[in-house]
Specification:
The chain is about 80% helix and about 0% strand. With about 300 residues, it is mainly alpha-helical. The chain has two domains: about 130 residues, no CATH class; about 120 residues.
């Protein structure tokens, strides 16, 4: 007689295959983003070699997800994807699809480990982590991107200030900064390039800067945007404001580095105590065993 867990796994796999076949023949593929920052990110993901083979399947499931009444969730996900630099060019419906598929893989892995190893902790861990992995990766990507923007912003602002002092206007200075950045894939370069694109499309400087602050919600970007907008409203020379901002951002980076170094010293205390305890055990262990032997 067959194992019930094996029958359950085989039945689940058969249902999944049948559902996949039905969905394949019942709906057309959703349109993939091909223009703008999201389209460029999608093209880069295709060239990576891993995303390309699964893209038709993803677009197919996204067509079904698009029929669900999830307007608020889509809006929130769209903002998160934009903040992450148009994560792999995914649309909100596609990201929901990825989360659902990840959850299904987690359930399948949990059932396998339950049948192979028994117990409940590992299967529950697989089931719980499955749907959360895409969101965790998105949050990690957003955090890394924001950190990279904060690191590259002072140098970009300083160069823009020098360009404006030499006679360029604000868009011209930003364009010069973008053209002379050595790392063409740096997040700060991508954000400044997007700022120029929005200005070329007719948006005001204030609107374009506030849009950048909405995408990169860090204190450094917020202060930079607020300073430039306020300088424009009051007629203060923007080059002077940019120079002050660059100096302030460098000072903030120094303070943050000192705080991180102080936290690292505290965090190293526990490993150092464990190492000292291990050394004491190695040194005193043989002596203690010898004394115990003499006592016996």
């Amino acid at each position: 007689m067959s194992d019930p867990n094996t029958i359950l796994i085989a039945g689940s796999f058969a249902i999944a295959v049948a559902t996949l076949v039905y969905l394949t023949i019942s709906v057309p593929l959703a349109d993939a983003p091909e223009r703008g920052a999201r389209g460029l990110a999608r093209q880069t993901a295709r060239k990576a070699g891993v995303f390309g083979p699964f893209e038709p399947l993803l677009r197919m499931f996204a067509t079904h997800v698009s029929r669900l009444p999830l307007a608020q969730s889509r809006k929130s996900l769209d903002e998160k994807l934009v903040a992450a630099g148009e994560f792999r060019g995914l649309t909100p419906d596609e990201f929901i699809t990825v989360s659902v598929l990840s959850g299904l893989f987690g359930m399948a892995a949990g059932a396998y480990f339950h049948s192979a190893l028994g117990g409940h902790w590992i299967p529950l861990l697989c089931v719980g982590l499955g749907p959360m992995l895409p969101s965790m990766q998105l949050q990690s990507r957003t955090k890394e991107r924001h950190k990279s923007v904060d690191r590259g912003l002072p140098a970009a602002i300083d160069l823009a200030s020098l360009c404006m002092g030499a006679g360029l206007d604000f868009p011209g200075a930003v364009k010069h900064v973008v053209a002379n950045m050595p790392d063409k894939s740096a997040p700060v370069r991508e954000e400044l390039e997007r700022l120029l694109q929005e200005l070329s499309l007719g948006r005001t400087r204030k609107q374009a800067l506030e849009s950048m602050a909405q995408r990169i919600q860090t204190d450094a970007i917020k202060e930079f945007v607020a300073s430039v907008v306020q300088a424009e409203q009051k007629g203060t020379p923007i080059s002077v404001v940019l120079k002050i901002q660059a100096t302030a951002l460098r000072a903030r980076r120094s303070v943050m580095a000192e705080e991180a170094a102080a936290r690292a010293g505290v965090m190293l205390m526990l490993p150092m105590l464990l190492i000292m305890l291990s050394i004491l055990i190695l040194l005193m262990g043989p002596l203690f065993i010898q004394m115990m032997g003499k006592g016996l």
